[in-house]
């Protein structure tokens, strides 16, 4: 893969920062393929494995660029110049450990050339392409090859022989700065729903909750946020549940906490008997 520093030096000269997208800032959320969590016992021979890139989910519908939630991404005109009418599903990625940079850049409605020079669109699927995922892989490489831009890259897919080899790959990926792995069933068609056709594997569990209150701090945190009170939505026969989320917050976040109603991502280690996450730790505001 081309390094970010080298690729940035080869990008076109700055052009007027204009968005190549329609004037509407919102659209119905695109129907995207969503992942379940990997479970031991999964038949690995059925799946392709790739790195999980920690960025902003980006959907190119053939004319415009959108987030998973249906908000337009105002990329500079040069970034999407020459892109096909073929829809592409991928991740806007700023490099390992640069999630916040990817989010802040994607959210700008007046795009900054300098910021966008650090982003790559890591394409991992073609939603409108017929056939199985195994058949879509060469089609995807063909589309990316024809685009022929350093900032558009096809996500590498490989096969893993055993659960032990998968864990070795996971450890190596995380050690190199990656977030985890994705497993994509080779025989699957593209369907805009959450299923076992797509799985995610990380070294920890994480999930999302909504901020419902700010709890005042005590002791060294007196006068600022002590913890977020967050709510996990009801699911099936399980009622909504609330718990405190105080670990993992920075000093800046305690001074200026995530807004009431914001969705946040937290990591945890299993659930207790009541279903509340154990050892929950704040990760970030989920802004994409």
Task: Describe the SSE topology.
Layout: H1 4-9, E1 34-37, E2 47-52, E3 56-60, E4 65-67, H2 77-80, E5 88-93, H3 99-107, H4 113-116, E6 120-125, H5 133-147, E7 152-154, H6 163-175, E8 180-185, E9 194-201, E10 205-216, E11 225-232, E12 241-245, H7 251-255, E13 263-268, E14 281-285
Parallel strand pairs: 1-9, 6-7
Antiparallel strand pairs: 2-8, 3-4, 3-5, 5-6, 8-9, 10-11, 10-13, 11-12, 13-14
How would you summarize this macromolecular structure in one to three sentences?
By secondary structure, the chain is α+β, with helices and mostly antiparallel strands. The chain has seven helices and 14 strands.
Could you describe the 3D structure shown?
With 288 residues, the chain is α+β, with helices and mostly antiparallel strands. The chain has seven helices and 14 strands. It has helices at 4-9, 77-80, 99-107, 113-116, 133-147, 163-175, 251-255, and strands at residues 34-37, 47-52, 56-60, 65-67, 88-93, 120-125, 152-154, 180-185, 194-201, 205-216, 225-232, 241-245, 263-268, 281-285. A five-stranded mixed sheet has the order 4-3-5-6-7. The longest helix has 15 residues, at 133-147. The model is unreliable at 1-23 (pLDDT under 50).
């Amino acid at each position: 893969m081309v390094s970010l520093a080298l690729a940035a030096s080869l990008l076109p000269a700055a052009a007027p920062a204009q968005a190549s997208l329609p004037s509407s800032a919102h659209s119905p959320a695109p129907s995207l393929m969503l992942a379940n969590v990997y479970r031991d016992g999964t038949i690995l021979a059925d799946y392709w494995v790739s790195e999980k890139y920690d960025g902003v989910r980006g959907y190119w519908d053939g004319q415009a660029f959108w987030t998973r939630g249906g908000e337009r991404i105002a990329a500079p005109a040069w970034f999407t110049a020459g892109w096909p009418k073929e829809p592409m599903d991928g991740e806007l990625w700023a490099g390992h450990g640069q999630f916040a940079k990817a989010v802040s850049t994607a959210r700008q409605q007046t795009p900054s050339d300098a910021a966008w020079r650090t982003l790559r669109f890591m394409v991992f699927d073609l939603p409108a392409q017929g056939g199985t995922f195994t058949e879509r892989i060469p089609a995807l490489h063909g589309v990316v090859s024809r685009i022929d831009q350093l900032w558009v890259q096809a996500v590498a897919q490989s096969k893993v022989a055993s659960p032990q080899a998968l864990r070795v790959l996971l450890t190596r990926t995380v050690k190199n700065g990656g977030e985890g792995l994705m497993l994509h069933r080779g025989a699957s068609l593209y369907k805009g729903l959450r299923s076992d056709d797509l799985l995610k594997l990380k070294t920890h569990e994480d999930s999302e909750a909504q901020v419902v209150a700010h709890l005042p701090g005590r002791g060294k945190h007196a006068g600022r946020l002590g913890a977020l009170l967050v709510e996990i939505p009801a699911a099936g026969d399980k009622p909504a549940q609330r718990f405190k989320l105080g670990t993992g917050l920075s000093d800046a976040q305690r001074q200026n906490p995530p807004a009431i109603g914001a969705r946040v991502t937290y990591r945890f280690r299993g659930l207790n008997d009541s279903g509340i996450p154990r050892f929950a730790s704040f990760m970030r505001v989920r802004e994409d």
